[in-house]
């Protein structure tokens, strides 16, 4: 995903075991970091349905992230919605260097991100304008 941002060290691998998720806040961005059997993923922690907060216990420890508000389900590896289909969490870029986990946090103000980036991304019909394959 090509969005404006900078990498921030958020956690180390010792902070998040396999099957765990952690909710971290940076510059007013709520970020869910997930460890899926050793694969680290990160998402803007707001649900594509009605912006419910995706808490750390929303990860089932295996393959799903389930929004606690109305129970929309997402594939933890891709962020794509499973039930219902046709939407997605906003994936954030991750890199792991040694045991340090870096996440690319958007550099635009959160209000702009919600409208221009996340707002558009939630609607799959316009995802491709931002270079994301649907
Ligand atoms: S806000 Fe997440 S399912 Fe409604």
From TrEMBL:
Keyword ATP-binding: no
Requisite cofactors: [2Fe-2S] cluster
Presence of keyword Iron-sulfur: yes
Keyword annotations: 2Fe-2S, Iron, Iron-sulfur, Metal-binding, Monooxygenase, Oxidoreductase
Molecular function terms, GO-annotated: 2 iron, 2 sulfur cluster binding; metal ion binding; monooxygenase activity
Sequence ranges assigned to domain Rieske in this UniProt record: 8-103
Gene3D superfamilies in the record: Rieske [2Fe-2S] iron-sulphur domain
Classification via Pfam families: Rieske
Source domain of life: Archaea
Name of the protein in its database record: Multicomponent monooxygenase system protein C
Organism: Saccharolobus solfataricus (Sulfolobus solfataricus)
Taxonomic placement: Archaea, Thermoproteota, Thermoprotei, Sulfolobales, Sulfolobaceae
């Amino acid at each position: 995903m090509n969005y404006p941002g900078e990498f921030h060290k958020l956690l180390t691998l010792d902070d998040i075991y396999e099957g765990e998720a952690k909710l971290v806040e940076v510059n007013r961005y709520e970020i869910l970091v997930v460890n899926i059997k050793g694969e680290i993923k990160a998402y803007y922690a707001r649900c594509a349905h009605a912006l419910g907060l995706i808490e750390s216990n929303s990860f089932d420890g295996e393959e799903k992230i389930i929004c606690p508000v109305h129970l929309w389900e997402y594939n933890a590896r891709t962020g794509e919605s499973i039930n219902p289909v046709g939407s997605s969490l906003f994936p954030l870029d991750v890199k792991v260097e040694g045991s340090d986990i870096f996440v690319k946090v958007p550099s635009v103000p959160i209000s702009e991100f919600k409208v221009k980036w996340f707002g558009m991304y939630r609607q799959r019909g316009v995802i491709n304008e931002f270079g994301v394959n649907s």
